[in-house]
Specification:
2 copies of one chain form a homodimer. Helices cover 47% and strands 19% of the residues of chain A. With 214 residues, the first copy, chain A, is an alpha/beta fold. The first copy, chain A, has 2 domains: 8-77, Arc Repressor Mutant, subunit A (Orthogonal Bundle), CATH 1.10.10; 84-196, Rossmann fold (3-Layer(aba) Sandwich). In chain A, the strands form 2 sheets. Chain A has a 7-stranded mixed beta sheet. A 3-stranded antiparallel beta sheet of chain A has the order 1-3-2. In chain A, helix 1 runs antiparallel to helix 4 and helix 2 (34-41) crosses helix 3 (45-53). The longest helix of chain A has 20 residues, at 194-213. The interface between A and B is large, with 60 and 60 residues. Chain A binds a DNA duplex (24 and 24 nucleotides) through helix 3 and strand 2.
Chain lengths: 214, 214
DNA sequence: TAGATTGTTAATCGATTAACAATC
DNA sequence: TAGATTGTTAATCGATTAACAATC
């Protein structure tokens, strides 16, 4: 499959399509037209067809899209047909919360270990997955094929840990620290800035309240 | 302050400006030009000036922007000059993780209570904030001024709980459930779909690996 | 075949970048 | 005053929507 230069906007919509198609599949729906799907998702049918056609023609004129087929194909595009081993750095509340999400595993994301600096965490396991100490990390990375590291640690530590991970071959970081990571451009960084999200919410509240005051 | 019709793209960048300005402030930097800030943030100076001028002229020709002033003003735009009471529905790992983020409080987001269905949680407190049972929720909402509800519960429960919250006057929802919420349009919903984020990361890994294979 | 719906081109809309006059 | 840098207009670029011929 060859699809370079697809816009970020399109990519960011794929997981949502995947989610809706998964729901339809569960409901036993066999086929759906871009028009019907557009109504469910509150987007235009045109956008759905444009988005999908970046990756190939998955539909059929006069019929629509086969739900199961499209679901599988989007899964492949998203790389969900392969397993991805990952580790979590920082076994605090958020790290443990991620470790407990069994649903990631169903999508092929396999948690291999957590790491922390707190000695009281040593040997503790979450869903059978052990928490190791940070000083074991380098060796662990050398002996295991790890693709993704989730960073759930304070901002102050995140930058140095990220550098260390990259030095040890990690090529993808899922960053929850409240800071940007400036890493070599072949390293993929996906950040979840929870406080940014909360501030956006707050902005919208303030704006609405202004409107009401009139 | 009057600023309707500002694009979503601009809004989503404000928290990032705020973060960088906060860092500069801590470093003791007094003023910064759009050009210098653009280099730090890896965006164009033009975009910074355009973004800010949606809300007013915060800079001065020949001088640049006063860091402290701009930081404060963006804070006001984001509604961080006021307190926002919130509750967390679902005191599982993620709910507890959010409850433990003291940094939200520093931005004016005050956690008033958590709620859960699990009777073993009853009376447990996080940072002194009690977990209450779901059947106390309606009364609690009537007796307290709550602006925001964070939903950290399974998809299956999220939709009905959201409806109930709205029926009891909640006007802003921070949604962590893996589902979209279709609520009246005066209700603000900000969703954090962790699995979507992970899939985006996975897409980028797959695309890069394809490139390497050649 | 007739009807439905895609894939795709063209038109529109919006967001980003460039340029520069205004001005501190 | 001269230099720097904003605020803002104009130009470009990209993304979304509309339209429709192709085709199942």
């Amino acid at each position: 499959m060859e699809h370079r230069g697809i816009s970020r906007a399109v990519i960011s919509r794929l997981p949502r399509y995947y989610r809706y198609l998964g729901d339809l599949l569960e409901e036993g729906v066999e086929r759906i037209s871009s028009n019907d799907l557009s109504k469910k998702m509150h987007v235009t049918a045109s956008q759905i067809r444009q988005d999908l056609n970046n990756f190939g023609g998955f539909g059929q004129q006069g019929y629509g899209y086969n739900v199961k087929y499209l679901y599988t194909e989007i899964g492949k595009i998203l790389g969900l047909d392969k397993n991805h081993n990952f580790i979590i750095i920082g076994a605090g509340n958020l790290g443990q919360a991620l470790a407990n999400y069994a649903s990631f595993e169903r999508s092929g994301f396999i948690l291999k270990s957590l790491f922390d600096v707190n000695p009281r965490m040593e040997g503790v396991a979450i869903r059978g997955i052990p928490i190791r100490m940070m000083d074991e990390l380098e060796e662990f990375l050398q002996q295991n094929e790890i693709e993704i590291a989730a960073l759930t640690l304070p901002k102050s530590k995140a930058i140095e840990v990220a550098d260390m991970l990259v030095a040890n071959g990690i090529k993808a970081i899922w960053n929850f620290a409240h800071t940007d990571l400036n890493l070599p451009k072949d390293v993929i960084v996906e950040s979840v800035h929870l406080s940014d999200s909360l501030m956006t919410l707050s902005y919208n509240i303030s704006r609405r309240n202004e409107g009401n005051k009139k």
